[in-house]
Amino acid sequence: MARLENLSLLVRILRALKRFNPGEFPMLLHSKLTTLHVVSMLLEHFAGHPRATRAALLHGSGISEAELGNPQARITRLQEQQVCRNALPLCAELGLELGRHMHVSAYGMLGYAAISSSTFGQAWRLLLQYPALLGTYFQLELSVEDELAWLSASDYSLRDSLEVFNLEMCLASLKLIGEDLLGRPLPLSAARFRHAPPAYVEHYAGSFACALQFEAPRNGFAFPASLLSQRLPLADPVTNAEMLERCQRLNAEFSNRQQWLQRVRELLLVNLAEPPSLVQLAAQLHCSSRTLRRHLQALGTSYQGLLDDLRFARAKQLLGEQDWPVSRVAEALGFSETAGFRHAFQRWSGMPPSRYRA
């Protein structure tokens, strides 16, 4: 019965594609900006928890209640990771828990293109072809070894302490995607992880009911390679062609926007002590300030928002790595008065810089 209900749900999703609007669906984009999808899932997961109030989970992220109610809002990946960092002490296996609820529909148009692919193997090749739309912090690879197909995750792209958390969420979600595509449980042959077995290792069975190996040479899971040629229950060549065209268009647009956004960040980052004004920044980009403001708004951010993000990241680095007085940190970030920096840091992180350093 559960399988039939799942299949019925996916059929309804495919029918809804005729009215598909990319902005209405959460997509985890691997970029400086992302949606509130993971944060919303996390808040829902802890709803009713006595120690996990919304304020405690959002502490230091700079995410407001107003943003949470706006489906078009965008946050930085640093903000997303801060919320996850706040929640981990309350649930060590949180990555596994979140991953088990991130269905193929969480990946927007790319997920729907995969659902309508002809075979299981074609669906995976399509998913891995667009890492920017898949939105992972890892390099994903599908390989066939003997009679097993291995889906591996390597080269973690962030410099933080959340690699294991993000890996667990990533692989648990990919396992669930496989089941969504097939319309039934995905039989795993093995799962390997580079990290040591955690204290909550028994929770791995919820996603990886197979032989587990920790401190392994790579991260990933394996399933029978024969499944790659299996036809998917929702295969539809017409829908697939339409979705693939949209994915290609969206990926090109997204890549161009991200290159442009990266250029803006570089121009601001090169001199945070004396950052260019909006007008000066627009001149360096050979456009008007109005055009620059419009482009930033389309990306879900603003000149001040980008500048704050860069200053916040740099402030945390200086406070953590340098034994500088707060006044010198403020000067390095372009604040004329130390009080102004303290007020800004309080707004960004929810605490004064001295407390953050302690």
TrEMBL record:
SMART domains: HTH_ARAC (SM00342). The keyword DNA-binding applies. GO terms for molecular function: DNA-binding transcription factor activity; transcription cis-regulatory region binding. InterPro entries: AraC-type_N, Homeodomain-like_sf, HTH_AraC. It comes from Pseudomonas pohangensis. It comes from the Bacteria. This is Transcriptional regulator, AraC family. The keyword Transcription regulation applies. It holds the Pfam family Arabinose_bd. Residues 262-358 form the HTH araC/xylS-type domain. Gene3D superfamilies: Homeodomain-like. Keywords: DNA-binding, Transcription, Transcription regulation. GO terms for cellular component: cytosol.
